[in-house]
Specification:
The chain has about 425 residues and is an all-alpha fold. The chain is about 80% helix and about 0% strand.
Length: about 425
């Protein structure tokens, strides 16, 4: 696929759409580069610089996703009423300011855990609006039949960046204090905002919806998004499966850094290898997604992806040790993400394909509310388990429960109306 496949009407329209997509793609890549460093640096600030307990580390992770639970639903209706490019730019600028506050506070020797909690929550608040706006804008930039290709490109680029990011972040943290490494992410969001400001196709990234007395009530718009997701058999099954996966996965993720950096005493460079392996696995899985879905059908491919990835992540837990077994754990983590990507990418494609364009912001926000809203709960549960029973117990609990994510897919009676793949009207089974 080439960028010439982006939605054309005239030669001018084709050129503008291609350029706009490239800028959106570049902005996302730059932003993800900094975020890959923050993924490692933020918990190291809490655990290393501020001596956070397992529960406090779990609370920090909960704050990173809390906004999806608190404002996830109305965010979709607001985004549908707003110019999506401006929403994304404002979100990037907000994240840059929040991240820059950490090294400034460290220089002044006033950095505290409450400030980290506030920064983490602010980052999640901005991410809610940025992600909803970006996913809602993409179908306006890319033809429906090429959504799989566009999403694979974005996801592949993210995983390429994430593959090198944590390793580079670990090396950076070896020579630079963790609070100051966050300045790199602040700069990346500034660069992302600059790239997005050059997107010229205003209508292509969302135009303001009517407001005033004639505009629909916010509550009614939110209800439309809820009905669209939970009234559709496929969207409901996929959303619930992703919610269970995120809930259980975050239970383990909340304890992982505590185990690696705290109990095992591994350096930032070694800790970063886990995230690098996950990103490399995601890259490979992303490249295989279209082929897997075409061969087995979207329903069976997604169900198999959840099962196989859950088994691999479960197998990794006993091998997280400070010796040669760590390499086995890293390999299992990476293979788990190879297996999981057909589910992750296809879920987004289905939502973009099945949802009416005028509802896409609300539907995306509804899905994010359900799917990401479980993550602060999982992080708190993981923190509590780590505090009272140990980090490894939290990892075992999360990995074992991850297999329950298959249930919504298995209980869906038929996989109907998905549009692509060799088998698009088949039972959701493995």
């Amino acid at each position: 696929m080439t960028l010439s496949h982006l939605r054309p009407v005239t030669d001018t329209g084709r050129t503008t759409a291609s350029a706009d997509f490239r800028r959106l793609w570049a902005a996302d890549t730059v932003s993800q580069t900094g975020t890959a460093v923050t993924l490692l640096a933020l918990p190291f600030v809490a655990i290393g610089a501020l001596d956070a307990t397992p529960f406090q580390a779990g609370l920090l992770m909960a704050c990173e996703y809390l906004a999806f639970l608190l404002v996830g639903l109305p965010a979709g209706a607001w985004v549908d009423r707003a110019h999506r490019r401006r929403v994304m730019i404002a979100s990037d600028l907000g994240r840059a300011v929040l991240l820059a506050s950490v090294p400034v506070a460290a220089l002044l020797d006033v950095l505290t855990l409450p400030q980290l909690y506030a920064v983490a929550f602010g980052l999640s608040f901005c991410a809610v609006f940025f992600d909803v706006a970006a996913q809602s804008a993409l179908p306006q930039l890319v033809d429906g039949e090429h959504l799989v290709s566009a999403n694979v490109r974005l996801e592949t680029t993210r995983n390429v960046v994430a593959a090198g990011g944590p390793g580079a972040g670990g090396a950076l943290l070896a020579v630079v204090a963790a609070p100051f490494a966050l300045a790199l992410d602040a700069l990346s969001h500034l660069a992302s905002a600059l790239l997005l400001s050059r997107v010229r196709g205003g209508a292509a990234v969302g135009a303001p919806a009517p407001v005033g007395p004639a505009a629909p009530a916010l509550r009614a718009e939110i209800a439309e998004g809820l009905r669209c997701v939970f009234g559709h058999r496929v969207l409901r099954a996929v959303t619930l499966a992703a919610a269970v996966s995120n809930l259980c996965g975050t239970i383990g993720a909340a304890a992982l850094m505590v185990l690696l950096a705290g109990e095992l005493g591994l350096s930032p460079l070694w800790c970063g290898l886990v995230f690098t392996a996950e990103a490399v696995g995601g890259l490979i899985g992303g490249l295989l997604t279209a082929r897997v879905a075409a061969r087995y059908g979207e329903g069976p491919a997604m169900c198999g992806a959840v099962l196989l990835s859950g088994l691999l992540w479960l197998a990794a837990v006993p091998f997280f040790q400070a010796d040669w077994r760590f390499a086995v754990a890293v390999a299992c983590q990476g293979l788990g993400w190879v297996a999981f990507m057909p589910f992750k990418i296809t879920a987004v494609v289905l939502r973009q394909r099945l949802c009416p364009p005028e509802l896409l912001g609300r539907v995306t926000a509804t899905v994010r509310f359900v799917v990401w809203g479980t993550m602060p709960v999982g992080a708190l549960v993981g923190g509590l388990l780590g505090e009272h029973f140990g980090a490894r117990t939290a990892l075992w609990t999360g990995a074992a429960a991850e297999l329950c994510a298959m249930l919504p897919l298995l209980l869906a009676r038929r996989w109907a109306g998905t549009g692509a793949g060799r088998r698009t009207d088949t039972a959701v089974s493995v």
